[in-house]
Amino acid sequence: MTTDEVLGVNAVALDSAGGHDGPMDPPLSTSSPPSSLPPNGGPGPAAPPTVYLDHSASAPPCNAALDAIAALLRRGAWGNPSSRHWLGQRARASLEHARDQLAGGLGVRAEDLLWTSGATEADDLGIAGAPQPAAIAWATIEHPAIVGPCRAVRDRGAVAVELPTHPDGKLDVARAQALLAAAPRPLLCVVAAVHHELGTIQPLAALRAALAPGDRLHVDAAQAAGRVDMQAVSRCADSVAVSGHKCGGVAGTGALWLRPGLPLRARVEGAQERGLRGGTENLLGALALGAASEEWTRRVEAHLPLRGLRDALWRSVADVWPGAVRQGPQDPADETGHVLSVALPGADAQALVEALDVEGVAVSAGAACSSGSGQPSPAIAALHGEARAKQTLRFSLGVGTTQEDIVAACAALARVRARLPR
Asked: Going residue by residue through the chain (422 aa), what tens digit of pLDDT does each one get?
């Protein structure tokens, strides 16, 4: 088999021609993607065939999202939603339609949703914008978008409660109950519904039951949308953060849902979003997220075959790299089935990411929000130590991932390993 045959699955082609009845995600191209263009706009080198296995960092927009953006531009409804004239009101109507769509996906009231720039801002607003609690509870393995504002609340005087976890990243609710019961009130508890590096599904209903009446539960659902039942998530929570580009929308947009009647103070002042989030809304991003949310139930079903592909990937990685250790839940009921977190003995994960990129395979060594620092994953380090974290790669699959992708990725990993000194 030639190199071209091994690496014959290419980058996601954003085919905006499909309608709402077409595939949810654009298909993977079977020919090389267009040549990349240098800053001066002149001809650039042809991009290599690419296998994309970093869907937890960003997923391709679904056709419905692309259609919604294109339709708005065709209608000329690109005005500022806060403007009083006809063009602004046309934009406002589109923005509120998207809010209605997202509310349907979450099973909540549209008037309780706030548009943000992403899940990071939504987390900050839902955590640091809540009334100052006497105690705040979170796990050390959470995403930086959670850890940062939780620490800020702690630094303002709240007692910090560390939620215990099992080695697979699942919350140990039985141990947490005593810690939560002993904490001063009022208490704010924060958790991600699905872990960003392990795909662990957290037991939200059990965590909710462990909280006292009046406690507040904020849930980051950035990795959950399109992978689990989002209406079940919102039923357990008092506030929920979502991200557009993780679930079929586009980057630069997210939302915060807040249970009716709960107080919240703005982190960015302004008249928009009921005075709770200043700044002009990202209209195109909101339309994309609204349209994508209508696909979430179908997207959950479309993710089911990914478990088999992920398991095949793990078997191949274990063959290519003796001593490899799979991290995360082993019980299918406890994880989404789209993530493979694996520690490769003797490897430098950051160097491996770069080497695989040269081979045309996109993976990560942790959360995209912190991987640019070059530091090992703090979540894996908290669970298994810094040495293993430095050896950990995250493969994350999505709708559109194929068996050919798995074969190509493992062939590339084998070539990279063969070049390493023994």
From this structure: 332 322 222 332 222 223 333 333 433 332 333 333 344 444 444 455 589 999 999 999 999 999 999 999 998 888 999 999 999 999 999 999 999 999 999 999 999 999 999 999 999 999 999 999 999 999 999 999 999 999 999 999 999 999 999 999 999 999 999 999 999 999 999 999 999 999 999 999 999 999 999 999 999 999 999 999 999 999 999 999 999 999 999 999 999 999 999 999 999 999 999 999 999 999 999 999 999 999 999 999 999 999 999 999 999 999 999 999 999 999 999 999 999 999 999 999 999 999 999 999 999 997 655 555 567 899 999 999 999 999 999 999 999 999 999 999 999 999 999 998 76
117 vs 40, 258, 268, 320, 385, CA distance in Å? 29, 16, 11, 41, 33
**Distances, alpha carbon 52 to alpha carbons 12, 19, 416, in Å:** 8, 23, 17
The H-assigned helical ranges of 44-194 are 63-75, 86-106, 119-128, 144-155, 173-182
* Residue spans per domain, the chain: 3-60+302-418, 65-297
**CA 361, 366, 372, 376: dihedral to nearest 10 degrees?**
-120
**CATH class, 65-297 region:** alpha beta
CATH architecture of 3-60+302-418: Alpha-Beta Complex (3.90)
Closest-CA residue to 104 (of 271, 248, 296)? 296
For 97, half-sphere exposure in the C-beta direction (CA atoms, 13 angstrom radius) is 16
Encoding tokens for residue 233?
A: 């998530």
Give CA–CA dist 305/251, Å, rounded: 26
Total-model pTM:
0.87
